[in-house]
Amino acid sequence: xxxxxxxxxxxxxxxxxxxxxxxxxxxxxxxxxMRACLLLxxxxxxxxxxxxxxxxxxxxxxxTVVKGRGGTEKTIDGVEFWESGDPERKYExxxxxxxxxxxxxxxxxxxxxxxxxxxxxxxxxxxxxxxxRELAGRCRNGTPRYRWVSRLVVVKYIG
Length: 159
Known about the structure:
This protein is of the alpha+beta class. Helix content is about 30%, strand content about 45%. A hairpin with a 2-residue loop joins strand 2 (about 70-75) and strand 3.
């Protein structure tokens, strides 16, 4: 009885070559699909969590010179941010900086660095923080969700 010989172009190529190639192609396709899904999820998360920040500087029309009583300040990028109280020296109010940073996903220091640039651009040395954040609502699990809202009094030191 004659035995049927397998049909192969080369004796060194295993008979299950086509199966191995098909499985490898499927594995690569699945890998690419998983990477595409991961990329879509990351894009959705980061665009959904991004904040659109609104900053508006409003110059003060009247000259107001004040002698402060002191308080608590933190210096960021050369600008003093007064978290409580005001500078214990003479200063002039030169304007107000309004910041609506949306949901808080970035650090306070990151926002202060951006505000410091505006304070300097408008000739200020310091900013007195009047308000900081407000409750925007609650997540399904009860966790509070805040919005960054602040009004800073921009001042220039005298003398």
